[in-house]
Amino acid sequence: MKSFELLKSPIKSIGDKKEYRLIKLKNNIKALLISPAKIDAAADPLAAINLSVRVGSFDEDKIEGLAHFLEHMFFRGSEEFPKDDEMHDFAQNNGGFSNAWTSDETTEYFVSVVEDKFQEAVCRLSDMLISPLMLKSSMNQERELVDSEFHQLAKHSYLHKDQVMKLFLNQKHPVSKFNVGNLVTLKENVNDDELHEALMKLRKKYTADKMGICLQSNRSLDDLQEIVIEKFSEISNNLEEDDEEWRELSWHEIPTEDFYSKLIFVKPTDNETSLTLTWILPPVKMFYKCKPLAYIGLIFSNTEDGGIINYLKDLKLINSLNFDFTRRTCHTQVQLFVDLTKEGYEEINFILETILSYLK
Fold this sequence. Notes:
It is a single chain. Helix 1 packs across helix 4 (about 140-155) and helix 1 crosses helix 7 (about 190-205). Helix content is about 35%, strand content about 20%. With about 350 residues, the protein is an alpha+beta fold. The longest helix has 16 residues, at about 140-155.
């Protein structure tokens, strides 16, 4: 079997002088390779790798925060590189950094290093995915780190508001769950044997058909292609369909009736006085070329005459207004964050009427 398939190259702007090549490995990993048009020793001294895995907190079974915890555990050594935090230390000692983050449906891993250490970084990342140690003895320290991240987030009212809103979403859908994780969900509610078993089960979802990788280096496209084929072709594949029941829910089944009828008050963790509006809408990922929500966001962020921001600021009702959205395969969550003045808090109904009128 051929080791890769050459796919159509991405469209690039006229001013973009880099070269691109998109390939699909025999195990269905798609790899985007990026190289300067002319190999130049004076080019960007850092090479970079980004690996995206289509596994996130929605893939958890019962243990909330497990996907985030799994992301942490991948950095606790592999068979070829068994040292704890080997990737972090290697990247930092070679002019770059490594990091990762977990979202609802994906987990992303980032690595950058100086150019001459690029191939070694790729080796470490691939081994981290193919043969992670996942030692039970490493779990306690990583739980503490996850819990520390949770407490940092808990200082901000955003997490509190987000968790309260989840109470008004369909509890059969994983979007209603707590996805950060802390010592309650990862220690008090589960024993170590159960947690380790759940980790290994979730790790099996890290299959090649759910992965995409991007490599950028001052090497030629042929060199990058050879590296990615050698290091990532052996990741196991699994083309079975996910059978979770929640995937059958339509987007309009996610919010409950109370979601549409309640004005919720949340005590802030600081001096914040704000208003947040949330909409649950159909998925929009298929419209990525025309970006309808980005367009609506630009209308809301207009600070010229006729824009809602200046109108409400002139009335001394708001300090700022920001539009944001989260695209998911099953639905889209749109939010409008309004920082209120003291006068604005007394005029919430008027502000709501103004926002809805502006939308209309």
